[in-house]
Specification:
Layout: E1 2-6, H1 13-20, E2 26-32, E3 34-40, H2 44-50, E4 54-60, E5 66-74, H3 76-85, E6 90-96, E7 102-108
Antiparallel strand pairs: 1-5, 2-5, 3-4, 6-7
Domain Gamma-glutamylcyclotransferase AIG2-like: 4-110
Protein name: Gamma-glutamylcyclotransferase AIG2-like domain-containing protein
Organism: Gordonia neofelifaecis NRRL B-59395
Length: 117
């Protein structure tokens, strides 16, 4: 089982049904050290599913920064579906959440190489 931290559209039950084929259980959590920015999406399927071309995207922030969101538990197929949903502006990386749980998260592709580790 994989843990995915969502801070945007993957918390939306309608998007979950479109991406995973069902609603997912979400557990509130937060990601320290990051901030939210926005990105314009051009993929028509993603826009149709989410209902908007403006999506949230993570970028490294100050040590005091904290992004609220939720953990989703995904099997291999659901994680692959999430990868397919996220456009090239995002890259999946592993992080440690405020709860201490390790999770995957999608952040700005151009920022992924600046992370420590």
């Amino acid at each position: 089982m994989h843990v995915l931290f969502s801070y945007g559209t993957l918390m939306d039950p309608v998007v979950q049904e479109g991406v995973f084929g069902r609603r997912m259980r979400t557990i509130p959590d937060a990601l320290p050290g990051f901030r939210v920015d926005s990105v314009t999406i051009t993929d028509p399927e993603v826009i149709a599913l989410s209902g908007t071309d403006t999506h949230r995207i993570l970028r490294p922030g100050s040590s005091e920064a904290r992004v609220p969101g939720a953990r989703l538990e995904l099997d291999d197929d659901a994680l692959a579906a999430a990868d397919d949903y996220e456009v090239d502006d995002y890259r999946r990386v592993e992080v440690v959440l405020a709860s201490g749980v390790s999770a995957w998260v999608y952040l700005a592709h151009d920022e992924a190489s600046t992370l420590p580790g």
